[in-house]
User: What shape does this take?
Amino acid sequence: MAGDAFVPPGFVVPLRLETTAFALEPLGPEHNEPDYAAWSSSREHIHSTPGWEESSWPDDRTLEDNLRDLERHAKDFADRTGFTYTVLEPGGDVVGCVYIYPDRDGAHDARVQSWVRESRAELDVPLWRAVDDWLGSDWPFERVAYAARRA
Assistant: This one.
């Protein structure tokens, strides 16, 4: 990719990934309450998820702090500097998130992380597989860091 752009200027960023078990759509302020409920009920589970073991998040932030975080993710998406998707069950409840951001150390084109709420832990591997395939087929990255899952 030319310059410092995370994705090429002409790249059309996917707005949805849909499977029979879940759908991904851009995370935004409208997801605040169900997003907060999903991660705040699953802190230990998220910390045990590959890629999150050393993370300082989830933390003790408030619903208002979470809203500011979702607004930041929506701005990153609009600015094409990072892409965060909420993971929704067919009924529309938030069950997780997927984050696609530049790799800080530059060894990869993108660093991807995902989590699902503890009550839907069985979706972790299917989500990882679907996102991994999606990254290979619909995104412009050659080298992606995304912690593998055990089937």
User: Anything to note?
Assistant: DSSP finds four helices and six strands in the chain. The longest strand covers residues 94-101.
